[in-house]
Design brief:
Elements: H1 10-19, E1 27-30, E2 43-44, H2 46-50, H3 59-65, E3 70-73, H4 76-90
Helix pairs in contact: 1-4
């Protein structure tokens, strides 16, 4: 038996957890360090989503919807740490067969 788990905006949640950022902050995540207005947003905070900012938009489009939008870079380290914790938690669960 194989199971799959989908975590909504995993990288954004991992970043918020590792960096203790306020979950209500207006944030958009990009995949590259040297982003520009044409860079694509890969994840957004819940507040950004409420203002109409969505993954797939460019940074410039996001800033039109929220001038105070803070752009953050995806953290591979935060993803790895969150994945370790998730694996440790899930390893404690096992299906019961009768």
């Amino acid at each position: 038996m194989i199971a799959a788990i989908w975590m909504h905006q995993f990288s954004m949640q991992a970043y918020l957890r590792m960096h203790a950022v306020d979950a209500d902050a207006l944030l958009a995540m990009v995949e590259v360090a040297d982003y520009s207005g044409a860079s694509l947003i890969s994840a957004v905070s819940s507040k950004a989503a409420k203002q109409g900012i969505q993954p797939g938009m460019t940074v410039a489009q996001g800033r039109l919807r929220g001038a105070e939008l803070r752009i953050i870079q995806r953290s591979v380290r935060a993803d790895a740490e969150a994945r370790k914790v998730l694996i440790r938690i899930l390893a404690g669960f096992s299906p019961v067969f009768e």
